[in-house]
Specification:
Number of strands: 0
Helix content: over 70%
Radius of gyration: 17 Å
Number of helices: 5
Structural class: mainly alpha
Largest sheet: none
Mean pLDDT: 91
Strand content: under 5%
Shape: elongated
Order of helices and strands: HHHHH
Oligomer: single chain
Low-confidence stretches: none
Length: 133
């Protein structure tokens, strides 16, 4: 895996902290929380995309694609956070509550589980690959 430089690593960590802060502030300050989460998600995803795998291990390539899926889910989660503060789609109330209201939490949970799984598996595969060399 391509290693991030110090600046990229700092952006990666700040993005993760902003996502956590945005999710935690949702109950207290709904006007600021989506912005914090969105900026954090964009920074986090941008730095994960920068970490490319240049090897030929199919398992790691597959895990990277799965990780990119979770990155898309994080961006969609940010979009749903903005949509959750009102009804911008003009849906009737029951449809909005069923399909939009607080469903960003479901996407966040799925993305977090996928991130956790792929990070652990990629690390194990990279260690296995290093032992072969």
């Amino acid at each position: 895996m391509k290693q991030l430089n110090n600046l990229q690593n700092a952006v990666f960590i700040v993005g993760a902290v902003l996502m956590v802060a945005g999710a935690a502030l949702w109950m207290v300050c709904k006007s600021v929380a989506p912005w914090l989460f969105a900026v954090g998600a964009l920074a986090f995803v941008a730095m994960q995309v920068q970490q490319r795998y240049e090897g030929d291990n199919f398992t790691i390539q597959r895990l990277r694609r799965i990780m990119l899926l979770s990155d898309v889910l994080l961006i969609l989660c940010a979009a749903l956070m903005f949509a959750d503060d009102g009804n911008p789609f003009g849906l009737d109330h029951l449809t909005w509550v069923n399909y939009v209201h607080n469903n960003w939490l479901v996407l966040l949970l799925i993305a977090a589980v996928i991130q956790l799984y792929t990070v652990v598996r990629i690390d194990a595969e990279l260690k296995k690959e290093a032992k072969k060399r």
